[in-house]
Amino acid sequence: MSATGAAGDTVLARVEGHLGRLTLNRPRAINALDHAMVGALHASLAAWEGDDAVAAVLLDGAGERGLCAGGDIRAVRASARDGDRRAAEFWRDEYLLNARIARYPKPYAAFMDGVVMGGGVGVSAHGSVRIVTERTVVGMPETTIGFVPDVGGTYLLSRTPGETGTHLALTAGSVGAGDALYLGLADHFVPSERLSALAEALAGAASADGVAEAVGRFAETAPASDLDGRRHWIDSCYAADTAEEIVERLRAHGDPEAAEAADTIVRKSPTAVKVTLAALRRARELHSLEEVLEQEYRVSCAALASPDVVEGIRAQVVDKDRSPKWVPDTLEAVTDEDVARHFAPAPDGPLGLAAPRASEAGAAG
């Protein structure tokens, strides 16, 4: 999809009719988010919130590869290696943006076309009008790089049917349009060739009802879900209390796909897998996205001190040898204390989105 604006702008913001349009504009990086882009999105959304001429907002991505491949993980690795707070400062503003999108008072539409990973999920799946296409590939691949699903990902994945979200989070799997709808990560299916026409229709919609009517005219029946047919082994295996037992159940089940999932999990960062499982289980007990984002901020800041983040990004993005050396290197070697430290208060305090629980307030004091 094409976009207009200055060539150097990494976020193109303009008003077309009644529509505030935001285009992530780093196509060579599949529109990966950096700190400046997060700030630009904040600024536009704040300005349009009080602008009566803007009835709705639309987010899309420049180029043909996808909406957004995630955050700038090379910058995260540099921050972790240098021991500074740059990554934490980025996450703070990014998570505040995720919360802003979720509670935005006007329709917030996202064209989840092509690749939508990690941070891309955060700026799309919390919106009120989430549109997928036949090209959509959605995922939270964090355990592959020694990290944990964030940007509200543990909120979304903890509320999917059965244990499907746990399966995706631990394996770092990705899904297409049918499964994105099934999981509650999207609302409508529109063929990619019709997105430009839909954007024009949205620009002509002067109200939330007009937006809904426009989307309804373009939405079509989505492909069937693949995950729904795997629930017979996903739900029983991932209901186990520990990551070790999940792997054991997957290997013992007898379904080849279950065995493959077990092999995938044990190749991920053992620490990230265990922390992810704990984060998902805790997120189920939290009542709001804001509370979960507060938890994710604590986990992300703690993960900066883990050698697995630096090593995982090296193996996947820098050297691309796909052979990370995890520390510890087995699930059994990751202790309860290793997991628990990820949920301690963040060094620079909470995001301010949700009041801390009494236990957290006591720990902080």
From TrEMBL:
<dbReference type="InterPro" id="IPR032259">
    <property type="entry name" value="HIBYL-CoA-H"/>
</dbReference>
<protein>
    <recommendedName>
        <fullName>3-hydroxyisobutyryl-CoA hydrolase</fullName>
        <ecNumber>3.1.2.4</ecNumber>
    </recommendedName>
</protein>
<feature type="region of interest" description="Disordered">
    <location>
        <begin position="344"/>
        <end position="365"/>
    </location>
</feature>
<feature type="domain" description="Enoyl-CoA hydratase/isomerase">
    <location>
        <begin position="20"/>
        <end position="343"/>
    </location>
</feature>
<keyword id="KW-0378">Hydrolase</keyword>
<dbReference type="InterPro" id="IPR045004">
    <property type="entry name" value="ECH_dom"/>
</dbReference>
<dbReference type="InterPro" id="IPR029045">
    <property type="entry name" value="ClpP/crotonase-like_dom_sf"/>
</dbReference>
<dbReference type="Pfam" id="PF16113">
    <property type="entry name" value="ECH_2"/>
</dbReference>
